C-alpha cells in the first residue's frame, strides 16, 4: 500500500520541471570554471543531455534556451531535434548582460539608441519563440548602479516601463512575458528590478500576459520566500520559478541541497495556492554545476523537487486547518512537520517502477554509458554557460 492517494499520485505524475540549457555547459562562479569531459559544443548537444534527464525521470519534458548563447541557424531544425529526443523547447531567456553597450543599462539606459538595441533583441527573441513553439519570454535585467548618485532611479523605472511596453505589445496571444527580479549583482548599490514588488508593479502595468518570475536564489538571507509565493499566487501573477539553492549569494546550487525544508515550504504554498500543475506557473531550474557532473546534477535536482512535492502533498490540510482555526499552535506545527519528516523515497521508487521508470534514476544513469560516451565523442567543449 502506497503512502500516497490516487489523487496525490495523479498530481505527481503531471509534474514538469523545465531544464536550463546552460546547466549542461561549463559555468559557475566568478572564479575558476572547472570543465567536465563531454561538455556540449552546441545547443543540439545541450538538448541531447537534457533529454537524458527526461528519459531517466519523466520529470523534465522541456528545455529553456538563452539567446544568444543558444543561437542557431534554424530554430525549426532545433525544435525537430528536441522533439526527436522526446523533449520540447521551452522558455526563451533574453540576454542583455554581455555587451559593452549595456554597461550603464539596456532597457533602462539613458541613451535611446541603446534602449532600441535592447528592445530589438527582445523582439528577436519573440520571433524565435514563434519558431520554437515557446510560450514564455523570460527577462532578467543586469541593470542598476554601483554608487549613490550614479543613476536617476526614478527615470530608469519610467524608461523600463516604456521599453517593456514595446516588447509586450509584440507578444502573440498565447505568449507571455515573465520578469525576474534580483536584489543585487552585477550591480551592487541598486538594481532596477530588485524585488517582487517592483516586478509586480511593472508587469501589472503591462497586462494579463505579463507575470513575475521568482528565482529562489535572488533574495536577501532570511527572506520568507514562501510568503512571496503565496502573495503572487493570490494576486494571479506568479508566472514562473527559477529553482536553485543558495548559502550566501546567488549560488545557483542544486535545488533543495542547501535547505530542503525551505523548498518544502515553498511547494506547500504552491499547492495551497492552486499552483501545482497549474499551467500558469512554470517550474524551471536555473543552476550551474561547477564541481559535479551536469547531467546527474540535473537528475538530482528534479528528484529533489519531486521529493519535496510529494512531502508537501502529504500535509493533512484538514487537520492543519482545524488546528489553525482553534489556535492550537503546536498541533498545527506538528501536522506540518509530520509531512516534512516523512521519507517518501521508498514509495516514490516503487511508484516509478510501476510506471516503467528506474526506481533509482541516479543509479540507473550512473550505470548507463552516457557520460563515458559523450566524453569520447565530444572533444573541445565550449564554455556553454556564459559566453558561448
Ligand atoms: C541571473 C539569472 C537569470 C539569468 C541566469 C543565467 O542571475 O538568474 O535568470 O538568465 O541567471
Ligand atoms: Mn534566474
Ligand atoms: Mn541568478
* CATH topology call: TIM Barrel
- CATH level-1 class: Alpha Beta
Largest sheet: spatial strand order: 1-2-3-4-6-8-9-10
Count of helical regions: 14
| Domain tally | 1
Number of strands: 10
The first-to-last residue Cα distance is 50 Å
* Quaternary structure state of the chains depicted: single chain
- Succession of helices and strands: HEHEHEHEEHEEHEHEHEHHHHHH
Q: What is the gyration radius calculated from CA atoms?
A: 21 Å
Bound molecules: 6-deoxy-beta-L-fructofuranose, manganese (II) ion
Q: Give the CATH architecture.
A: Alpha-Beta Barrel
**Which regions contain 5 or more consecutive residues with pLDDT less than 50?**
none
Describe this structure in words.
By secondary structure, this protein is an alpha/beta fold. 44% of the residues lie in helices and 11% in strands. The strands form 2 sheets. The chain has an 8-stranded parallel beta sheet with strand order 1-2-3-4-6-8-9-10. Strands 5-7 form a two-stranded antiparallel sheet. α2 crosses α9 (294-313) and α10 packs antiparallel against α11. The protein binds 6-deoxy-beta-L-fructofuranose (LRH) and manganese (II) ion (2 copies). InterPro entries: L-rhamnose_isomerase (IPR050337), Rhamnose_iso-rel (IPR013457), Xyl_isomerase-like_sf (IPR036237).
